[in-house]
Amino acid sequence: MIRPLRLLFLAPFSQVTHCPGLEFAGDLARALGVPLHIAAFTDPHGAESAGPVGAECPDIVRQSLLALRHKWLKDESARLQERGVEAHPEVVCASSSAAEYAAYAHRFKADLILKDMQARPGVAHCGLSPQDWELLSISPVSVLYVQPGPTQVPGRFLVAIDMEFQAKAGDSDNHSIIEAAKHLASACGASLHVISVYDSDAPDQGDLSRYDARKQAFDDFASAHGIAREHRHFIPGAPANAICAYLQRSPYNLLVIGAANHHLLSSGIGLTAEGILDNAGCSVLAIKLPVEAAPIQATEPGAIRHASS
Q: Where is the UspA domain (predicted)?
């Protein structure tokens, strides 16, 4: 018997009000028909629980903080339960570090981590913080970073694949990425689009016949996975810039991209990936590869319905 998919939402350590990532995580759990585990990390000996400088009773401050965290988790879990989400909250007494997050996900045997993106001063949209990058690098499983803003029914997903890497290595990672995206889109009732960039600035890429061959391979790949022709986007340019520019012209709710052994997002998480993930302007699912077990399994799909609908 296959165990249910395990979704893990990492609550911001200072959160005591509702956050959009939890809303998204609850919707996803309900759509997939699986429980949602909510972990709120609170270090009882950390700076966040020490209180103001000069406080006379730091122990009282810490206990008050823990009480607030427990109440927030209880209230949010009750609200999710009312909307049909099976929520399992837990206050974790550990530092809110990427290493602790990754270790906890490993112990919990999570299949997918969900986490809010962080606001950045002077930037219109949110992006990945240094801690987010570290978590993505060391996480044992895929990570979905949720862009803050009004929660909407996810209508359009974009999955990025690399036909150049596919041609060189006979790579199966692209297949794993798109299959995971298809399961997720089906469960959420979202349309799925696929994009690939022909790097026209790379050596030997100016040959028109080479472009045509890559374009044909892209169409064959998309056809094999049942992607409608009008949902295929094969564009020239530098990968990070081209994808970000495309996302600005055609807004999507979620970008799906590979997170290891992939040209766009190498295991070292290079500058190209940073350019894409920090400027996507939407939520991002970074799929860790290779995929031993697809992060989105073929559970019985059901459309997302919000409390306001």
A: 21-146, 156-288
pTM: 0.83
Domain count of the fold of the chain: 2
Helical (H) or strand (E) element with 274: helix 271-277
CATH number of the domain encompassing residue 195: 3.40.50.620
Smallest CA-to-CA distance from 98 within 134, 127, 130, 129 is with: 134
Tokens of 240: 């990070």
String of DSSP letters for 206-270? --HHHHHHHHHHHHHHHHHTT--GGGEEEEES-HHHHHHHHHHHS--SEEEEE-SSSSSS-TT--
Same domain, 196 and 263: yes
Residue range of the domain that includes 25? 7-146
Residue whose pair of structure tokens reads 């997170």 in the numeric block: 259
CA 9 to chain centre: 11
Amino acid at 175: H
Residue 252 lies in a domain: yes
Residues 232 and 37: their CA atoms lie apart, in Å, by: 35
* Enclosing H/E stretch for 165: helix 163-169
* C-alpha closest to that of 143 among 7, 251, 303, 298: 7
Q: Are 236 and 189 in contact (CB under 8 A)?
A: no
- Whether residue 11 is found in the same domain as residue 105: yes
Q: Which residues of the chain fall below pLDDT 70?
A: 1-4, 13-18, 44-58, 119-125, 150-154, 165-171, 202-206, 260-274, 290-309
Whole-number Cα distances in Å, 144 to 26, 205, 214, 301: 13, 33, 29, 19
